[in-house]
Write a structure and sequence with these properties.
Layout lengths: L4 H21 L8 E4 L6 H6 L3 H10 L8 H12 L10 E4 L7 H16 L3
Parallel strand pairs: 1-2
Helix pairs in contact: 3-5
Length: about 120
């Protein structure tokens, strides 16, 4: 994903912190998991990343499930992880993104570059 090295490096660090803490704290009965949201409708992040209707459509079209996520999609995943149903889940990095991380994120990067080029922005 072009122009996102800072974000990608930070996210990779959080993924490893999740895995290492799960190993270190597991013997104490502490479970550590991460939720990785994808494009979520109505959030500040989406307003900044997709300021135009064209970019909003490009992102939505790049999600395999065909829609943006909702805050409730994230909440439901967190509720599952906090429940006894996930009592044997630890060290997991769980994307809640409608399949977007399977390839759609690169579509957004390409769309953002094209939009910037049209506007004459580097």
């Amino acid at each position: 994903m072009e122009h996102q090295v800072h974000v990608c490096a930070a996210k990779a660090g959080v993924d490893m912190v999740t895995r290492v803490l799960a190993m270190e704290w597991g013997p104490e009965g502490i479970r550590i998991n991460s939720v990785v949201p994808g494009p979520i409708a109505g959030t500040e992040g989406m307003k900044r990343l997709t300021p135009t209707p064209e970019l909003q459509k490009a992102v939505t079209d790049s999600v395999p499930l065909g829609r943006l996520g909702t805050p409730m999609d994230i909440a439901n995943t967190v509720m599952y992880l906090a429940s006894p149903l996930a009592g044997y889940v630890t060290g997991a990095v769980i994307p809640v993104d409608g399949g977007w991380s399977l390839g759609g994120a690169s579509v957004l990067g390409a769309s953002m570059v094209k939009t910037a080029e049209k506007r004459g922005v580097d």
